From TrEMBL:
Keywords: Amino-acid biosynthesis, ATP-binding, Kinase, Lysine biosynthesis, Nucleotide-binding, Transferase. Belongs to the aspartokinase family. This is aspartate kinase. SUPFAM superfamilies: ACT-like, Carbamate kinase-like. It is an enzyme of class 2 (transferase). Pathway: Amino-acid biosynthesis; L-threonine biosynthesis; L-threonine from L-aspartate: step 1/5; Amino-acid biosynthesis; L-methionine biosynthesis via de novo pathway; L-homoserine from L-aspartate: step 1/3. The lineage of its organism: unclassified sequences, metagenomes, ecological metagenomes. GO terms for molecular function: aspartate kinase activity; ATP binding. The keyword tRNA processing does not apply. The keyword Amino-acid biosynthesis applies. GO terms for biological process: homoserine biosynthetic process; lysine biosynthetic process via diaminopimelate; threonine biosynthetic process. It catalyses: L-aspartate + ATP = 4-phospho-L-aspartate + ADP. InterPro entries: AceGlu_kinase-like_sf (IPR036393), ACT-like_dom_sf (IPR045865), ACT_Aspartokinase (IPR054352), ACT_dom (IPR002912), AKii-LysC-BS (IPR041740), Asp/Glu/Uridylate_kinase (IPR001048), Asp_kin_monofn (IPR005260), Asp_kinase (IPR001341). One of its GO terms (cellular component) is cytosol.
Length: 409
């Protein structure tokens, strides 16, 4: 008998038919002899709808009330799924995040988990029931309802799997697993059987939309095995585990992020404290700066370029203009139409030449590289947004990813 956490995303439970299909899958798992804890998202696009209504109703939108509102979506879904499971003769009980023992900090709309005490979930399982928990929610020390942020249901599932010592955490979604590249862009992208936490973390940090990056971090820290799979075909998906001691793919995946913009500050005096001043101002305004490149200086002046999410571009430019007036640099330029393409693979740590192949591939396709960044298992290039899809296709091809990975020992 295994203990499984099964998480279902919004699309997986988007309609009454989908709810019933999920209930059947859960009931089948129970009949097979396994214990199941379900974590569920709000149905379909309900979270977006609730956010939209809130914007229409209010300009203030206090965090406490936003969290009460948004978490209602998941709460409705838990009750409905329990009803559908009951129809199949299996007992199920719904739980809010707070009933499931999720204690969080009080950062409304983006709360962090402090502790999970799933006593009531354990009791429910011991009584032979299926526990159905609302995703992305908890309770603060002040006993207010909190929301864990967009994509937070993945984190709920992983944290619950860890707290319960579950055998596996299955993340059911609308795609059959983690792909070597976005299948909408690369027609011969392949579903991976296995991937390491480190690789998936790099992928989610560099544009791969699912699972939520925070949940992958949590799973890596606590060693929770993940299985990303489809709620539509029920076929086996991608298993995410610790780094294997055996062979490792040199390159596992090519991901891209088009939600990037570039800011360049020019005529920056090359002396201590200038970068500190600018980036402190950006940090204090909560601008999430990513890739940063500073040129070597000529005659005591240099320029610095960095990327930010599109949504932060205007704010970043305004802050740089103010900072420029304070520390005396001459220009601030914004380039909204850029994107980042990244190749990721645990095997590149011990295999030279990956960066060279990336640059050659882009050059052969006449794609200009604006910025370069690397980690131990990733090479990223910033290119014009208009070129990024061609870059993804070309890199996927030149690393032979459609044919299966090339390994190093
Ligand atoms: N429903 C929420 C969202 O779409 C939380 C989640 O499902 O992860 O972000
Ligand atoms: Mg979701």
């Amino acid at each position: 008998m295994a203990l499984l956490v099964q998480k279902f995303g919004g699309t997986s439970v988007g309609t009454p038919d989908r709810m019933r299909a999920v209930a059947e899958h859960v009931a089948r798992t129970v009949r097979r002899g396994d214990q199941v804890v379900v974590v569920i998202s709000a149905m379909g696009k309900e979270t977006d709808d609730l956010l939209r209504i809130a914007r229409e109703v209010s300009n203030t939108r206090p965090g406490r009330e936003m969290d009460m509102l948004i978490t209602a979506g998941e709460r409705k879904a838990t009750a409905l799924l329990c009803m559908a499971i009951a129809d199949l003769g299996v007992e199920a009980e719904s739980f809010t995040g707070s009933q499931a023992g999720f204690l969080t900090d009080s950062t409304h709309t983006n709360a962090k988990i402090i502790e999970v005490k799933p006593d009531r979930i354990r009791a429910s399982l011991a009584a032979g029931r299926v526990a159905v928990v609302g995703g992305a929610q908890g309770q603060s020390a002040e006993r207010n309802v909190t929301f864990l942020g967009r994509g937070g249901s993945d984190t709920t599932a992983v944290a619950l799997a860890h707290a319960l010592g579950a055998d596996s955490c299955e993340l059911y979604t609308d795609v059959p697993g983690v792909f070597t590249s976005d299948p909408r862009i690369v027609t011969n992208a392949r579903k991976m059987e296995h991937i390491t936490f480190d690789e998936l973390l790099e992928m989610t940090a560099n544009g791969c939309p699912k699972p939520a990056m925070r949940s992958v971090e949590y799973a890596r820290t606590h060693g929770v095995e993940l299985h990303v799979r489809s709620a539509f075909t029920w076929e086996s998906g991608t298993v995410v585990t610790k780094e294997s001691t055996m062979e490792q793919a040199i390159v596992s995946a090519v991901v891209h992020d088009a939600d990037e913009a570039k800011v360049t500050i020019g005529g920056v005096a090359d002396r201590p404290g200038v970068a500190a001043h600018v980036f402190r101002a950006l940090a204090d305004a909560d601008v999430n700066v990513d890739l940063i490149v500073q040129n070597t200086s000529e005659q005591g002046v240099t320029d610095i370029s960095f990327t930010v999410p599109h949504g932060d571009l205007e704010k970043a430019v305004a802050i740089c203009e103010t900072a420029g007036a304070e520390v005396g640099f001459t220009s601030v330029t914004a380039e909204p139409a850029i994107a980042r393409v990244s190749v990721v693979g645990a095997g590149m740590k011990s295999h030279p030449g990956v960066a060279a192949t990336v640059f050659e591939t882009l050059a052969a396709n006449d794609i200009n590289i604006e910025m370069i960044a690397t980690s131990a298992i990733r090479v990223s290039c910033v290119v014009a947004e208009a070129d990024v899809e061609r870059a993804v296709v070309a890199l996927h091809d030149s690393f032979g990813l459609a044919n299966g990975p090339v390994y190093v020992d």
